[in-house]
Design goal:
109 residues, Alpha-Beta Plaits, four-stranded antiparallel beta sheet, 4 strands, 18% strand, globular, Putative tick transposon
Length: 109
Amino acid sequence: TNDLENRSRRKNLVFYGVDDKTSESWDESKAIIKNICKTSLGMELESVERAHRLGRYNENKKRPIIVKFSLYKERQAVLLNAKRFKNSQYIVSKDYSHETRSIRNKLWE
């Protein structure tokens, strides 16, 4: 089941470090991600199906945004260009199941 969950997440990316506000619609999250990719990566995103925040709002933390792409190629292009975020507040990573994230975190310890 973990493999199935990871497969269902393979067109997703998670953006960390994006400024947050109390109420943000999916369309606003989508527009924010498109703007970040346009200004920071020089990429016009065409295949973003959905983008939304994870978790509840906390004024002391920036909630990550999960982005679902309809085109795997565009998702890969964003991931490959994410190195341009190196000296910025943003981090982009693949979306993994909770179990896979736990295993990967243990490997980094």
